[in-house]
Amino acid sequence: HVQLVESGGGLVQPGGSLRLSCAASGFTFSNYHMRWYRQAPGKGPEWVSSITSDGTNTYYPDSVKGRFTISRDNAKNTVYLQMNSLKSEDTALYYCAAGSVQVPGVYADWGQGTQVTVS
């Protein structure tokens, strides 16, 4: 079955950096686009970044563009999120999600999340 396990979260001061990882198993990773989402307390999920299945294209909302970088290693079945210049408003539970290239726009499989606290 599909399994996504995030790691790398923690407590960091404003202006600091963290690198999140998401290890995937149970499916053909290279056939899936990947996304990172986050959810702050009392708010709904917010899309943070996307990367295509082959890693050639990446996308970001304005809120993180220029500070966050998504990447993937298909040989290691892992997607990463490098977060720089962190702000207090980046505090949230961060999730990775997988979407099959066969079903565009549907990201049905999510991990359990990793907490990022900027303070």
Write the layout of secondary structure elements.
Blueprint: E1 3-7, E2 10-12, E3 18-25, E4 32-39, E5 46-51, E6 58-59, E7 68-73, E8 78-83, E9 92-100, E10 109-110, E11 114-118
Parallel strand pairs: 2-11
Antiparallel strand pairs: 1-3, 3-8, 4-5, 4-9, 5-6, 7-8, 9-10, 9-11
Describe the structure.
By secondary structure, the protein is mainly beta. It is 0% helix and 50% strand. The protein contains no helices and eleven strands. It has strands at 3-7, 10-12, 18-25, 32-39, 46-51, 58-59, 68-73, 78-83, 92-100, 109-110, 114-118. Strands 2, 4, 5, 6, 9, 10 and 11 form a seven-stranded mixed sheet that branches. The chain has a four-stranded antiparallel sheet with strand order 1-3-8-7, with no helix packed on it. β5 and β6 (58-59) form a beta hairpin. The protein is globular. The model has no long low-confidence stretch (mean pLDDT 96).
Mean pLDDT level: 96
Give the terminus-to-terminus CA distance. 37 Å
Q: Any idea what the shape is?
A: globular
The secondary-structure element order is EEEEEEEEEEE
Describe the main β-sheet briefly.
Answer: 7 strands, mixed
What structural class do you assign from the helix and strand content? mainly beta
pLDDT < 50 stretches: none
Gyration radius (Cα, Å) is 13 Å
Q: Number of DSSP helices? A: 0
Residue share in helix: under 10%
Q: What is the β-strand count?
A: 11
Approximate strand percentage? over 45%
